[in-house]
Amino acid sequence: MAREAKDHGLVFFHSREISSFPAMDTTPAYPTLRIVSHPLIQHKLTILRDRGTPTKIFKELVDEIAMLMAYEATNDLALEAAPVDTPLETTVGQRVSGKKLTLVPILRAGLGMVEGIYRLVPGARVGHIGLYRNHDTLEPVDYYFKVPGDAAERDFFLLDPMLATGGSAVAAVSSLKRAGATRIRFLCLVAAPEGVRRLATSHPDVMVYCAALDRALNDQGYIMPGLGDAGDRLFGTR
Ligand code: PRP
Ligand code: URA
Predict the structure, then answer these.
(1) Which atom of ligand 1 is nearest to the CA of 138?
(2) What's the confidence (pLDDT) of residue 55?
(3) For burial by CB atoms within 10 Å, which of 23, 58, 85, 222 has the most?
(4) Given ligand 1 and candidates 133, 134, 186, which is best to mutate, with the most ligand atoms within 8 Å of its CB?
């Protein structure tokens, strides 16, 4: 640890702790998956998993993690030169080029991820896909679909905290593609291996960004260890 940093109280890392980390992990078994392993995300995710975390904090954490994940998931956005007049002279800066980003939460739980990302990309449009899982069959039932008309021209971030069996994600991506979308990324907080595989099989062009790849699904289709029912915990409806 640098002595000067210690003397100034600017101690961020301890000598025996890991002080560097890759922004995103990949694994050969899941070629479409990116695990966003930033320490702040992992810290917040642990509080999110805690059964004692109240609705208000849960909501704030989903918002914050979504924002941090979007920071990583946008790290390859194309830039173009942008002339700008500073108070002193004209210079050439950079701005994000290409079409506007469209955020599409899968209702209900995906709604919790919108605002955090919107703060980072205020020019984004927001579409909505309404889906719920039939509790017996675990298959998705769709009830709403609305995205901007020029879907073929846009980049889509499909948002849902949970990728469990993958049925909802596959159905949502299929709906977006029917509407003309070609560039889609799926952002979730917790993914199950089953869901990642199912989405990759049906839509191998869709990259998945998650904060954690959990162990498995239980008999009721819940992710283990997971964080429970994301929609119920977000909206206090148990
Ligand atoms: C949850 C979750 C996903 C879906 C994931 O929603 O938010 O949309 O389940 O499960 P899957 O990968 O097996 O399809 P739910 O159906 O509980 O609806 P809700 O958001 O309205 O509570
Ligand atoms: N949907 C949730 O909200 N949680 C799970 O664990 C699985 C599906």
Answers:
(1) 13
(2) 97
(3) 58
(4) 133
pLDDT band at residue 98 under the 50/70/90 scheme? low
| Domain boundaries, given as residue ranges, for the chain | 27-235
Domain 27-235 carries which CATH code? 3.40.50.2020
Q: How far is the CA of 212 from the centre of ligand 1 (A)?
A: 17
The answer to whether the CB of 33 falls within 8 A of the CB of 191 is yes
Q: Strand pairing partners for 58?
A: none
According to the model, what pLDDT value does residue 104 have?
Answer: 98
Residue closest via CA to ligand 2's atom 4 equals: 229
Indicate if the pLDDT at residue 23 is higher than 80. Answer: no
**Model pTM score:** 0.90
- 108, 72, 49, 60 alpha-carbon torsion, rounded to 10°: -60
Q: Which amino acid is located at 200 in the chain? A: A
Residue 15, pLDDT score: 47
- Closest C-alpha among 130, 66, 126 to residue 101: 126
Q: Is 188 in the pocket of ligand 2 (CB under 6 A)?
A: no
Query: Would you state the structure tokens that stand for residue 200, as one six-digit string?
Result: 């990759």
